[in-house]
Amino acid sequence: MDLFTHVLIAYLLAFGLVGFQPAYLAAGAIAGGLPDGDILLFPLARRFPMLRHHGITHSIFGVTVVAAIGGGLIAPRIAPGDPLVYFVVMEVGGLGHMLQDGFTHFSVPPLLPFSERRLELDADRAINIVTLVVSVAAFYLLLGVERDHVPFAVYLGTVYGLMAFYGAYFALRLSARLWVGRHLRDLGPYEVPLPTTNPMTWLLLRERKDGGRVRTEFAQYVFGRGIVRGPFAVDVPMEPSGAVGPVADEHDALARSYPSARHASGVLEDTYHFGEAHREADGSWLATWYSLEISAFGRALGVRVPLAPDGTPGTPRRAWPVPGWRRRIA
Fold this sequence. Notes:
Layout: H1 3-18, H2 22-33, H3 42-45, H4 60-78, H5 83-103, H6 129-145, H7 152-183, E1 192-195, E2 201-210, E3 213-222, E4 226-237, H8 250-264, H9 266-270, E5 273-279, E6 285-296, E7 299-307, E8 317-319
Antiparallel strand pairs: 1-2, 2-3, 3-4, 5-6, 6-7, 7-8
């Protein structure tokens, strides 16, 4: 989930616990965003892996430590209040952040430092443009348009309306995820359902790594219509194969480009991905590898690898391409 949604939902959770008490609401909202502060610990994460993004700060232990310090020591010094209430709203805000991330296709380790077991429901994208837009608009409405300008009843209506929206949103996405997971085997040889921005549209995927090669197959599924695109497949070596000479075809271009693309981008290492290649007018090739999990506005995060007419791979370049499969009709 995006930072705005984390903070807004923590605000709504705190409101549900204590009502309209601004100091507690502010503490809860801040706690909802604090776990993502682990990006500031990046220099230490290489030496202490638990400090990585989505590491110890996204665990029950980490959230509780932050709530204890923030609620027991810091918040009461800033705004008078009950340290126990501060602790509770900050704990709930932090746990809400952890559960929202675990709700998506980005996993979190809720039991660190005692266990590395991951929580990942794959029910939503890590950053969904729908919730991002609603959350940003909600902040503008609550803190700008309505603040000190409308009757309190109007503010309450907005808060309860946002609660209803997010409750329905999470219920819809979870229901869709459970249905797809239950019927996955009936839809083909797939093992993983990947969410898209639309809860009614999913990517069904199977990945195999064997003998130094990786094979990825996927198709696009829409509720009520079935599989509308695919299946698509790519099978390439994970390390350089030593092939030389001009590129023979798209499959050869993908096989030669994949090792350098994979090593150039941690995104490809950490997410399910796919590749496409096309020949340029001068006889060179351009291979594009992109994530199937990190995308927005029809584009996906990925890497482009140029291949000279003689087959020599060029320097990989990060890109935000439009996947070609979106334009294909099954």
